[in-house]
UniProtKB/TrEMBL annotation:
Transmembrane segments: 22-49, 69-89, 110-130, 160-184, 204-223, 257-276, 283-308
Keywords, ordered alphabetically: Cell membrane, Membrane, Transmembrane, Transmembrane helix
Biased composition range(s): Low complexity: 914-934
Recorded superkingdom: Bacteria
Region spans: Disordered: 845-867, 903-940
Bilayer disposition of the protein: Multi-pass membrane protein
Name used for this protein in its record: UPF0182 protein ACFSUO_02935
Taxonomic placement: Bacteria, Bacillati, Bacillota, Bacilli, Bacillales
Organism this protein belongs to: Lentibacillus juripiscarius
Compartments it resides in: Cell membrane
């Protein structure tokens, strides 16, 4: 009976163990299903999103390549791991008695499962590395096109260095890393009881792995000579004066690499034979020889660099310097730059101003930083609106070519009241921003604020905006659902709100299975169950434009300054610049990290309403772009619409890189280039009361050999450690001339004032500095705007706006003065027209004084008043000014700085209101602006 009972208990125990085993398997299966489900849902929703934008082929191409590489990496790493572990186990079983081994090693089924699990883990790790790093290299390698140029040393096409060499290095490094990892595992395993001394199996295993590592080392060294063409490192401790192959590379490093490759092969064979024969001590010989040669090679490089090259560096490096100069210019497209001489004359005159009236009319009086503050305070209207940026562009306005500032009024729901931050409001109702603000670059109101060309809600101004809603923009937008049962808030109108509905089919339909998939992907149960989401509803996902384009094409580098464009049909798009870069262009100096080649062959637009994305091939002949066209034939749009092309802007980042490189690589004489005797640098300026390096700026001007004004991006140059202007670089932006870069050199035999010299002269001018200091002491802050060098025919005029901002939190920066500098003359006046008039009188005393006309206009301002009435009004105004000034002095004496600043602002405003010329400063000089701050309602 006891035996029976005991047997029965054991049976129950076995049944319980089986139940727990099945429960464990079930839990494991559920975990795997959940992981697979999450991955699958993410892939499916990504595909649906890409397909909604007509880029499904891009998604499938990348995914297919990643899957193939991932599977290859998994198989490679898992098989290598299993093979290594299997051989180690077999060596242990052969070498030790069964009683000496852990029991787990003898249980074949269990140990196989453990080895398979470990192999799978290592396989997953290897898979992630290969598909994560290698997918783009592999696609470029397979589909690459020729550059049509070869290097001067190995005579290989440039594409070999840009595409083939990175792929080969990637393969070698992955395999070498895997081989070294397995070797370390084997050394650790066979060090137990010194198995490597006694076990033939262990010795053979180590020998095979060492042989593979040796062959991979040989491959690594065989590729090293090609790498010398894109670096200035000659050894671990020294750099050459040459980027690319140098004298030391040619004499020492290239031969050394081939010798080490041969030694690595010999070492591999030697070690395999030695281990097979059991001659363990002889294994040290090739290893010692290899290490010794590496050290000797480094030493030889140091000796040659120190004692042969350095004493006569220019002579030794001269042929290599020439290649460095030639190929760097090619890598940054500096060969196409046209150099011209600029006379730098002091020839400014009224006739010159008249001939270049369009240039003068487009001189920028506002800067984007203070202007952004003004837009955000005067044109947002509600706390949930925000201008993220203000950009500069050009338009045909009333038949005239005009430079403008433009910003989007975007939605930012983080500023909604807490009680309004409901799921419905944030996901269904508040879905978009609304409208634009556009202002003249060259005009301000008498109060120093921008003159708007587009403003208010809905937009009113010089052009019609057919779809002012901003569903996609620069803000960190959440995904939203449109066309739901909830009306979307459009814009405020008085005490009421105007509603709308999304009128496009570019979102993701939430009908059928899509609703479940995207509810799971969003982690939103409300999306799935809400009765406010209907069959007609659409999901607008990834609405931040930078995230959007990066999600579609992560293989490009995007400029961080997208800008708005109003198209001819009134729709609004965002324009982005996409860069293609490379790291191994031979002989080219890197501008950032190892990147030594850059182009901007792709322009991207994102519709602010629909979210549609277009990748335009702006430079179809670029070899990097042609490679991507081979990889993703459906990604690019070949034909660029004219209204898009008209707003192409040469990107500041690319221009900055090219201008910076040209500061060194404009030197064609090799000895001058070697000594950097004529190095040009970017000037400094005083901006926002701080000395800062000048940035490129867009301006509208007429080039000396052209008939019409153009949109130009330009940058002045100064010599190293000096402040005079030596040259200026510009790039054209309009029509067929887009991308044409030119440089004007100034005479070296006389001084042409540079930006910092002008800034210093502003500081040293007694009248100007006294007035600026007075404002600063009155509780206000004086802000110096961008100093612009404006080339006009054969001379240069400097312009700098001066902002005044009171110290209270709600104050706005206002343009109160404009400084003009020309030659040895410098003036500061209330507006640009007055400053220019005063400057012309200084440089040309024969300029007629139009004071009589001003007086006549001033008389006409008090229309209907007789002389006595005008005098009585003048006396009243003088008494009011006197009272305000007395109050200002009293506030100063009492130490009430804030009150004094407010009184001074009021006094200045009243003074400007009573100056007839102020009221007509823009109108009289520019008839098109006669409506003051109210833009016309004409279409572009």
């Amino acid at each position: 009976m006891e035996i029976f009972n005991g047997g029965s208990g054991n049976g129950r125990k076995i049944k319980l163990n089986k139940k727990f085993n099945w429960l464990g398997y079930l839990v494991l299966a559920l975990v795997l299903v959940v992981i697979a489900g999450v991955i699958s849902i993410g892939l499916i929703t990504d595909y649906i999103w890409m397909d909604s934008l007509h880029f499904a082929d891009v998604f499938t191409t990348v995914l297919t390549n990643k899957v193939l590489l991932g599977v290859s990496g998994f198989v490679l790493f898992a098989a290598g791991t299993f093979f290594t572990l299997y051989w180690i186990r077999r060596s242990y079983i052969k070498h030790f008695d069964s009683g000496q081994l852990p029991p787990i090693l003898l249980r074949r089924k269990a140990i196989m499962l453990i080895m398979l699990a470990l192999s799978a883990m290592i396989g997953l790790f290897g898979s992630s590395i290969i598909q994560g790093i290698g997918w783009e290299r592999t696609l470029k390698f397979i589909h690459h096109v020729s550059f049509g140029e070869t290097d001067p040393y190995f005579n290989m096409d440039i594409s070999f260095y840009v595409y083939v060499l990175p792929f080969l290095n990637f393969i070698v490094f992955v395999l070498l890393g895997m081989g070294i990892f397995f070797l370390l595992v084997q050394i650790g395993a066979y060090s137990v009881f010194h198995m490597y001394r006694m076990s033939r199996s262990a010795q053979l295993h180590l020998g095979v792995t060492l042989g593979l590592v040796g062959l991979l080392l040989a491959a690594f060294h065989a590729l090293q000579p090609f790498g010398t063409l894109s670096t200035n490192k000659v050894n671990l401790f020294q750099e050459s004066a040459v980027t690319g192959l140098s004298y030391t590379d040619d004499v020492i490093n290239v031969p050394k690499a081939y010798i080490l490759a041969a030694v690595a092969i010999i070492m591999a064979i030697w070690m395999i034979v030695a281990l097979i024969r059991g001659r363990l001590r002889s294994v040290i010989i090739p290893v010692a020889a290899y290490v010794g040669l590496v050290i000797v090679g480094q030493g030889a490089s140091i000796v040659v660099q120190n004692f042969i090259v350095s004493p006569n560096e220019f002579s030794k490096e001269k042929p290599y310097l020439e290649d460095n100069l030639t190929y760097t210019r090619a890598a940054y497209d500096l060969d196409s730059i046209e150099e011209k001489q600029h006379p730098g004359k002091n020839s400014l005159s009224a006739e010159m101003i008249e001939r270049n009236s369009a240039t003068i009319d487009n001189v920028r009086m506002n800067d984007s930083r203070p202007l952004l503050d003004v837009y955000n305070q005067l044109q947002t209207f509600r706390t949930y609106y925000e201008f993220n940026d203000v950009d500069i562009d050009r338009y045909q306005v009333d038949g005239e070519y005009e430079q403008v500032f433009l910003g989007a009024r975007e939605l930012n729901t983080k500023d909604l009241p807490s009680q309004a931050k409901t799921w419905v409001n944030q996901n269904l109702r508040y879905t978009h921003g609304y409208g634009l603000a556009m202002s003249h670059v060259n005009q301000v109101t008498p109060q120093g604020q921008p003159k708007y060309m587009l403003k208010n809600l809905p937009p009113e101004g010089v052009m019609d905006v057919s779809r002012p809603q901003i569903y996609f923009g620069e803000e960190p937008y959440k995904n939203v659902i449109v066309n739901s049962a909830v009306k979307e808030f459009d814009y405020p109108s008085g005490d009421e709100n105007v509603d709308t509905q999304f009128d496009a089919d570019t979102g993701i339909s939430l009908s059928g299975l899509n609703r479940l998939l995207f509810a799971l992907d969003e982690g939103s149960f409300r999306m799935f169950v809400s009765d406010q989401v209907t069959e007609d509803s659409q999901l607008l996902a990834t609405r931040n434009i930078m995230d959007r384009v990066n999600r579609i094409a992560p293989f490009f580098t995007y400029d961080q300054d997208p800008y708005l464009v109003v198209r001819d049909d009134g729709s609004v798009v965002w324009m982005l610049d996409a860069y293609l870069t490379a790291e191994n262009y031979p002989y080219s100096e890197a501008f950032q990290g190892d990147t030594n080649y850059i182009r901007n062959p792709v322009k991207v637009t994102v519709d602010a309403y629909t979210g549609e994305v277009n990748f335009y091939a702006a430079e179809p002949d670029n070899p990097l772009l042609r490679t991507f066209q081979n990889i993703f034939p459906d990604l690019f749009t070949e034909e660029v619409p004219e209204d898009i092309k008209a707003h192409f802007r040469y990107p500041e980042k690319l221009f900055t890189v090219q201008a910076s490189m040209y500061g060194t690589y404009h030197m064609s004489d090799l000895e001058v280039f070697y000594n950097r005797e004529d190095f040009w640098q970017f000037p400094t300026e005083k901006y926002f009361n701080e000395d800062t390096t000048m940035e490129p700026y867009y301006t509208t001007l007429k080039l000396p050999d052209q008939d019409e004004e153009e949109f130009i991006l330009m940058m002045p140059y100064t010599p190293k450690n000096r402040q005079n202007m030596i040259a200026w670089m510009g790039v054209r932006n309009d029509g067929d001339n887009y991308g044409d870069i030119f440089v004007y050199r100034f005479p070296k035999q006389r001084n042409i004032y540079g930006p910092q010299q002008i800034e210093n002269r502003i500081n040293q001018d007694s009248e100007i500095s006294q007035e600026l200091n007075l404002w600063s002491q009155g509780g206000s802050e004086v802000i110096r705007g961008n100093l612009l060098a404006i080339p006009i025919e054969d001379t240069v005029l400097y312009v700098e706006p001066i902002y005044i901002e009171s110290n209270n939190e709600t104050s706005l920066p206002e343009v109160k003065r404009v400084v003009l500098a020309y030659g040895d003359q410098i003036v500061m006046e209330a507006n640009f027209d007055k400053a220019l008039e005063k400057m012309l009188k200084k440089v040309d005393p024969n300029v007629e004084d139009d004071g009589g006309q001003d007086e006549q206009e001033g008389d006409e301002t008090d229309e209907g008043q007789g002389p006595s009435e005008a005098l009585i009004g003048a006396e009243e105004r003088l008494e009011e000014f006197a009272d305000l000034f007395d109050a200002y002095k009293k506030a100063l004496s009492d130490g009430k700085w804030q009150e004094a600043a407010e009184i001074m602002d009021e006094l200045e405003g009243k003074l400007e209101e009573n100056q007839p010329s102020n009221g007509s400063e823009s109108e009289s000089s520019n008839p098109k602006n006669s409506n003051d701050n109210e833009p016309s309602n004409k279409t572009e």
